[in-house]
Amino acid sequence: MPETPESRFPDSEDVSPPPDPTVRGRHKIYVGAAAGVGKTFRALQEIRELQAEGRDAVIGVLETHGRQDTERAAEGLRVFPRRITEFKGAQLSEMDLEGLLAARPEVVLVDELAHGNAPGSRNPKRYQDVQGLLSAGIHVISTVNIQHIESLNDLVARLTGVRVRERVPDAVISEADEVILVDVTPQVLQERLRAGKIYAPDKVEQALKNFFTEENLAALRELALRQVAEAVEVEPQDKLSIKDRILVAVTTSPSSGRLIRRGGRIAKRLGGDLQVVYVETHRPSREEARVLEGFRAITEALGGEFRLLKNAGGVGRTLVNYSREYGPTQLILGESRRSRWQELLRGSIIHQVLRGTRNVDVYIIAEEQD
């Protein structure tokens, strides 16, 4: 949804300060394909306009990264003091969630939604702080880059060669009241990069050769356009159709995380349910348990359910029996890691599932390391 002058948020007639804690705040997100498109600049511009109208709008947290244009855009705006914490001898500053909840401003700007908070913070992630503000009836204007959205993580990594570690659950985007795409062409973004408006001069050439290639930026731009289009898409009117169920089977290999994200994208596109299962063939080691807990977190972030299945006659048979009970419309499996000889001796799990399931689309995803 390209930005228009009419997309100002929140409208004065919608807001009756001070915030009402019984009414959830409204959330507006500025989304961009990459750093430097102007998301934060647009958000700051909106805060300035709200303050000029006499509204109680403040900057909750702003990450300028030394960019002079961003710093100038913030000059003269009311900034809520950050909370300072110490960690391993270093002083770290984060958004003061407790202070904002006590002060109860009408609108808060929260930059870089995917940011991970410093140890000791109330929430591990900044988007969780935003949820706290919204629950208190405070309106939020935030920013995020497309590569930080959970279900797009694998796709972005394949397109750009860069694996983003800080992620935002898709539900945060889909539940927002407004999602605004801030869009510029790859050529304009490269010009801004060369002019030193995004990174320091000594990092420009490396960025142009890696993440900020014209091909990467064009691909990210297309992803951003699709993501925003999906976020504002009208719900289908036919509620009587059978809802899709996407079932993903994982192992304790870290690379199984990409299967979950693939399933999450399919579930989101089809408006279906996501369920992820692991068949317990042995007591997991400490490292395997950690991996499984990570998979549970990813699944829940994508709005799905994670389940552990008791082994009943082998992994293949267990998956077939559970599929008959659950009734998925799509089943996602990872490429077998067994050798040909092992498959001859013990059988192929994939073949067992293919033979044992009916009326299910089965996807076999090639092995790839995270």
From TrEMBL:
Entry GO terms, CC: cytoplasm; plasma membrane
Gene3D superfamilies: HUPs, P-loop containing nucleotide triphosphate hydrolases
Annotated ranges, domain Signal transduction histidine kinase osmosensitive K+ channel sensor N-terminal: 24-232
Keywords: Kinase, Transferase, Two-component regulatory system
Alphabetized InterPro entries for the sequence: Histidine_kinase_KdpD, P-loop_NTPase, Rossmann-like_a/b/a_fold, Sig_transdc_His_kinase_KdpD_N, UspA
Residue ranges with Basic and acidic residues bias: 1-11
E.C. numbers: 2.7.13.3
PANTHER family, sorted: SENSOR PROTEIN KDPD
Tree of life domain: Bacteria
Region (Disordered), start-end ranges: 1-25
rRNA processing is among the record's keywords: no
MF (Gene Ontology): phosphorelay sensor kinase activity
Name under which the protein is recorded: Two-component system sensor histidine kinase KdpD
Chain ranges of the UspA domain: 244-357
